[in-house]
Amino acid sequence: MDKSQRTRTAVLINGVSALVAGAAIGLASVETASAQSFWDLFAPRQPVQRLAPVRPEPAAKPRRARNLSVPARYKNPDLSKSNGLLPASAQGPITIVVSTDRQHLTVYDGDKAVSDTVVSTGRADHPTPYGVFSVIEKQVFHRSTLYDDAPMPYMQRLTWSGVALHEGHVTGRPASHGCIRLPAAYAKDLYRFTKRGVRVVISREDVKPIPLTDFASVFQAPPRRYVMGEAVEAARTPGEIEGPNNSVGHYQVKTKVDLAAKMPISVLVNRKAGKLYVRRNFRPLFEVPIEIDHPNRPIGAHMFVAQAAEEGRTSWSSLSIASRTREAMLRGNKAGDVASIPVAPNAEDALRRIHIAPGVAARLAAIAGPGAVFIISDEGARNKESWDGTNFIALVD
Fold first, then answer.
1. Which of 15, 91, 258, 308 is most buried, by CB atoms within 10 Å?
2. 307 SS3 class
3. What predicted TM-score, i.e. pTM, was given to this entire model?
4. Per residue in 19-35, pLDDT tens?
């Protein structure tokens, strides 16, 4: 047998061996499957449970410790020195007016401008709110709880939601998260002269206090009434019980002076609720319903401030803050827009729409001295910024 024949024979033998081996494996598989099927009748196989891969939990980030440090320059500031923010002749009450259009702040002594500065208010994504506010808290150095412990030197809080006057980087353009930034020296001077309760008006345009010639009609005392020949004072609110007589014989009992009772009152007329609210020293005194002409028509936001005048009298000035509703109306938008609802164009027109009961008016006249604030607003006294412990805040859209 030659070499080629031996090669063909070897290949043939290998092929036959492969076929025999494959047939054997196939028969074995069939027998194994048949046997497994037979035993599955009595003991079914359980599906294979695949375990999910165990992934290590990410390490918890360490909680960032709050930065409560106070720079040395703010620990014991000398607040007795002044750069002349207010003149020595200033008598008050002090009113602060902020214009976001001008990025400008003006301080008024009564209705006279005595100081001003450039500011930076809130950016478009964190706008500064508009309306009538007051200083409700003061701290020489405060760190923001909302924005990474940002420093707020000479902080004068206006709302519990995070709006305040404070020292900061001033650019003359909107740059803050809603606060009103002041130049460093000015912030310190203003802090020195203000007290809790000082009114702050924030408006788009630069509004100014306007002296009023006719405000007495709001607090006009009614004539005396006579019942069975005896004069009865009409100064008490209807239903109010007269206080006890503290006199003993010909001598008057001495009592301690109540400083809180000497503080100016704050009055808010809420058009939506049809009520008048009165507070003193950040606490409620009383509230009564009042009548308002056209109660479904916006009345705007107006603030009236009392100041001492000649011969012991009290004079009043007014500030009006325009809302978007009024601005749209003045632009003459199409009918059906909210602008089609007339809005009181000025404070005197708003006053004429209000009718206070004679007894309430007389009581207000008795307690409304210099520093008293009278606010008319569409916004209610029950908004979250006007809770007890604050002065009334009237927000404007």
1. 308
2. strand
3. 0.71
4. 555 555 555 555 555 55
